[in-house]
């Protein structure tokens, strides 16, 4: 099995020491990886990982990325922490995105990782970042030689990335936190991510390396040795490259329901359902009265 590079989107992604990479490797990327202004790890991606709350936006954007040949993505993963039914716009996710894989299928193969994940979700309402989800997925798939970058534990703030996000972009409109430079995401903590990394280090035959000197990861992981006399060549992105979500045309979510979702209110909540049912009832009554 090839080595694999696990790449978060933190600032250290743009500061990789490419002489420390092996000649041939797979790559896992996540979330808004395509916002990068250079191909920091090339166009070919073994797996792209997305959050369930914005899966339609990401899948639709990925379709355009592939169509324009900006990236080649082999597999798509939805970051899940359990096997409960995931419904999007009234449809089971497997019925609308049948090729998307659930990361929970891999997490449950690693009992110690699964236990650590569930403990922190239940008692502290905390869960690992996408970089860690990619890490345990790679381990569960049998990767032994793993290189990490772009996992910076949000040292510069909750929206500190290797790229800039336009405050007027579709993603910032959908998720206003991207407009707030002081935003701190309380569900992610450095301590929890480090606990997962330490657990990975304890596994036999697993070798983890940092590939960005002077990064947060290089303080807890050994730097990979210099091993590539012909370093990886970083290509520029094409002019007019996609660096925002492309909004799906047929998402039927009402403005009211979308507002609830944007503020973290679960649409499955019994009280929210009652309000939505009441709204539908009022609409029906108005329609009947108008068409008497």
From TrEMBL:
For this UniProt entry, the molecular function terms from Gene Ontology, in alphabetical order, are: glycosyltransferase activity
Keywords for the protein's UniProt record, in alphabetical order? Glycosyltransferase, Transferase
Which superkingdom is the protein from?
Bacteria
Task: Name it.
Answer: Alpha-2,3 sialyltransferase
- Organism annotation: Helicobacter brantae
